[in-house]
Amino acid sequence: MHRYESSTNNKPRAGSFDEILVNRATGRSFVSPTPQKQSHMSVYHSSSHHSSAPITSRYGSLPQDSSQERLLPKFNSQSEASIREKGSDVEEQQFLLKQETATNNNNHRDSSKKSSDRSSFFYYIIYALLNTTMSVPSLYGYASVIFNHEAFQPHIATLSKLVIWSSAVHQLCFVFFSSLSFAKAEVQDAGLLFLSIMTNYIADTVLADGGSIEEILSTSIVTLAAATTSLGLVLMFLGKFNCANAVSYLPLPVVGGYLAFIGYFCVVAGVGLCISKSMIGGDFLTDLQLLADRQSFLLALPGLLSGLLMMVVARLSQNDAALPLTMFLIPTSFYAFLYLFGITLDDAREGKWIGKIQQTASVSTLIELVDFSQVRWDLVFSAKCLSVWCGMVFVVSFSSCLDVAAISMDMGEPLDVNKELITVGFSNLISGLSFGQTGSYIFSQTILTYRTGYLSRWIGFLGVLMFLSVVVSGVNLLQVVPLFFLGSTLIFIGIDLLYEWVYEVFHKLIPSEYLVLLATFVAIQVLGIDGGIVFGVIIAVVEYVVSTSRVSSMRRVMKQSRAVWQPYHRKLLQEVGYDTNHPKILTLEIRETVFFGSSLLLLSRICDEIGISASPTDMMEMSLASPRHFSKSPMAPTATSLISSLKKRRRAQESPEATSLNEKRRRPKYLLLDLSQVPNVDASAARSCFLQLAKMCHKNGIIMIATGANPRVDWILRSHDVAYSTKDEEMVKSQLLYPHHIVDTVDLPHGKVLLFDSLNVALQHCETRLIFDLEQKQKASLSTSVVIPHSLMDTGHLFKAKLSTIFSRLLGIAKENQVLNCFEEGGIAQVEEVSYYSEDEVYTKGENADSFYVVLAGGVEIRRDASDDFDIKASSTAVMKRLSFADRKNIGKSSFGEVVSYLQVGGIFGYIDFMLDRRRLFNAVCSKDDTVLAKFTKSTLEELEQDSPDVHRIIEKALLQASLMELANFDVA
């Protein structure tokens, strides 16, 4: 007896008995995508290891076809004889043999598949029945919410079936069009209140005008249908044009407050259903008065306890069948109680435990609900209904997006929110055209179906059939099922929403946002849906302004330029310029938008950081510059308190005890504000903060510099005379960078901000001037007081530095070092020098990093690719048009992207990509004419390593030093 290997991939063969067992055990059905050939004469032996289960035949074996990696079955002699009769040609026989083999295998596979399908279909029915069992009671509750007015009560049974019909339509649309085969959809709680407001408004208006019940029914159903249809069109539009993110502009705390109110609303509606009295429309005290009655309290108590029990089971139980089983046991226990105590249904109905007997709600009564001749079209398109509809669009859209996101997170797979929004919109469109109500995904039941493992559209389709069976049946659940059970389903939903959006969300929101949620919740009860949501949005905006104005958006950073200094100068900068306690060059990084709400607080913090205080004149100017000086709003005390604190600080510093401390305290000479992380500065902040700070700094001998401002901020500072004009700015920068030159004395305006495009360049200017001032104070000789800036004694004229000079300054090696002399004499011949003009491209992003460069003359800009920069908004284009050409000179080079760093003579760049052997991450562009770069390639370094090992070690040390200097400008330990 020979043994055949069933597979080569350690998995059960497709369509085999082992495969069926595996899939049945895991709750999955299998449909083979490609036919697998196997013999109908084979005998299968089950094994715990399916991949190695032997498959034997009582007719022996055939050689295994290794090329196809499958079994070739054994055929009887009759089959072989028939094949020989059909053709004598060998190829024809082989073809006929394969054809008959495929026929036999298909027959066997079909028989196995039918057995598996029958088993799976049974589970489809079970889970569809579970979903329907959970949905139908809730839908009766939803109907009691939507049509809660007294005018609808005689027809509530028919209207409840209309809601179930609408849920069937939603589910059918999701079966055919949703990307999730297991999606569950029906009338959802998100739009209940909006629909309820419309029906109540129509009922009250028609009754006030002396209209009939038929007018109320027809007008209400047509209005809800029109609202649902138009909502579907809007949702499809949003999804089609990828606008799903637009609904996120509604703040989450506001939506949370609305959903919390829905929870409260469902609890009240559920209690009203339990006691057979409408509690919707009254206030909280009125609701308590109704429950104060002993009979009403006894009727409501089982519903409240049942709803709480279902909420606990749903949240704590790990078994997906626990909640449906609980929902089945509650009414069963009620009937068991009636049977044990001999209570009839009529007695229970008389005690209001079961609904009154009403006319049977048949399909014909559904059709007769709408009489177009009775429709009040003036109410259908009234301003009230239109305003309610607008709020419903935002809330339902936001809720649907939240449901899709929650399903995606539970699945662990990404979902296309816009595509799913189109599906929701289409289902609402069809539901509205069939006189239904709004609906969407039911998150809990969708996930329940997903976790069963039966991901088939059959479950949803069977659910549709079960919904329709309830609609066409003559049974009225309101007069059979306990009212407290139907009410408990609403109470369960309400308690769950309240628990999620009042208790759980408390740990997920900051206190101010949580207060916005509670304010929205209360405002909806007082002002209504529309007014409450608008009030919540206003409170959210105020909360953002207040919280932003109190945010600490400033911090000190320790950064230095990339300048190449002599060892003596470098030590001088470390001990004086960048002293930890009292630095002469102080850099402050500012983040987030600076506006009138945060400007004075920011000014106060900067003054504390640099150790200056405001004079009476300064405080008066700050008060006048602030737009809140004449404001009577609650925000005004903030400005007053800040000015008051400045006064107190000034008095404290003028006291005898503080005088000695002020004498010891050394203020910085240069204050640098890094504005690269500031997206916007408004006009009020420009004058009340930056202009006043510049004046105060000038009075205290501090030069104030701002770097990295985007075009919008740059324009604001210049247009309000906070910064120097372009002409004056160049002269001030020249005095900083070339202090050893004789510059004509020109009266320049004082008390203004000096703008730089790059923090690195600004630091270089400050370091240059600081070294010059320190050496002048020390009365050093001219030879030792020569300033060696980043460009190595760049005088503004064409100057080409030597590599030996650059490396000696970078590493602190004596200039007469023999190795460096050898490098100049011999090693330099192996290094290629490349000349460029301004705007010439050295390398671009994505290129292979086959070399690194050292700037010998001119300058280079490192730029981020334009596609990587998302900080400069489109609105900045209009601002840039208002700038002068000189102010836009760097912006005009946007073809290479935003400038992130400037390198002048002595700068080393491109070495990180070179050493890591990766593609370029930035663009390098020359910023000056006659730029000369020393280019080091791999072959150059290999030749130097062989011919001049000492020179090679110097280059490695230089790269290491450059890396350390680069690392020193990052906030790392």
Folded structure, characterized:
The protein is 56% helix and 8% strand. It is elongated, with a radius of gyration of 40 Å. The longest helix has 57 residues, at 90-146. It starts with 16 loop residues before the first helix and ends in a 6-residue tail after the last helix. The chain is built from 34 helices and 17 strands.
Outline the low-pLDDT stretches: 1-88, 626-643, 657-661, 780-797, 869-894
Question: What is the helix tally?
Answer: 34
**Largest pleated sheet:** 5 strands, mixed
The strand order across the widest sheet is: 5-6-7-8-9
Structural class of the helix and strand makeup? alpha+beta
Quick one: overall form? elongated
Strand content: 5-15%
Mean pLDDT: 75
CA-atom Rg in angstroms: 40 Å
Fraction of helical residues? 55-70%
Q: How many individual β-strands?
A: 17
Distance N terminus to C terminus? 72 Å
Give the topology.
Layout: H1 17-25, E1 43-44, E2 55-56, H2 77-86, H3 90-146, H4 156-177, E3 185-187, H5 192-208, H6 213-240, H7 252-275, H8 284-292, H9 294-316, H10 322-340, H11 345-350, H12 363-367, H13 377-380, H14 383-411, H15 417-433, E4 439-441, H16 443-452, H17 457-472, H18 483-503, H19 511-549, E5 554-557, H20 567-577, E6 585-591, H21 599-610, H22 616-625, H23 636-654, H24 656-664, E7 670-677, H25 683-699, E8 703-707, H26 711-719, H27 726-737, E9 754-756, H28 759-777, H29 803-811, H30 818-825, E10 832-836, E11 841-843, E12 851-857, E13 859-864, H31 876-881, E14 898-904, E15 908-909, H32 911-916, E16 923-926, E17 931-937, H33 938-947, H34 949-967
Parallel strand pairs: 6-7, 7-8, 8-9
Antiparallel strand pairs: 1-2, 3-4, 5-6, 10-17, 11-16, 12-15, 12-17, 13-14, 13-16
Helix pairs in contact: 2-3, 3-4, 3-7, 3-10, 3-17, 3-18, 4-15, 4-17, 5-6, 5-14, 6-14, 6-15, 7-9, 7-18, 7-19, 9-10, 9-18, 14-15, 14-16, 21-25, 22-23, 22-25, 27-28, 29-30, 33-34
